[in-house]
Amino acid sequence: MGQTKFQKFIFTLMMCFGMVLGMTVYNMILNEGVHSDLLTNLLKEFWLGFAVALLIDVFIVGKLAKPIAFKTVKPNNETKQIKIILTISCCMVVGMVLFMSMFGSIIAAGFTIDALKLYPLCIIRNFVMALPLNLLIVSPIVRFSFNKIFSPKLA
């Protein structure tokens, strides 16, 4: 989304923020349960994950997911916009889950063989949450907000 590089970056920033926030809360609850320090821990742990996710999104997954999506769905005048959006979103989720699950495994177990053992479970757990989070919650909210911020003002 977005017409200019700045707008595209803001859209990416908003999507990344929403997804990392949702996935961080999800993983913290899975790993620690709900407790009184959840918000404090979230504020501490969120920022590193957000920075890593943004870098992976901008420099790796975004560059791979969109060409793959456009090979799957050939955009033309007859292609419905929702089909393009869903295809790109699904490709982004798959790529980000693969990378961020490795990040989470390393954060949990360090650079050890245990991180590799943990990785497949993290992929499954994260994919189960990330796809509906993206398609049903974050993407619609971000698209609505983005359009409110960047739509031409009608006089």
From TrEMBL:
InterPro entries to which the protein is assigned, alphabetical: DUF2798
Residues annotated as transmembrane: 9-26, 46-65, 85-111, 123-146
A Pfam family hit: DUF2798
Keywords: Membrane, Transmembrane, Transmembrane helix
Record protein name field: DUF2798 domain-containing protein
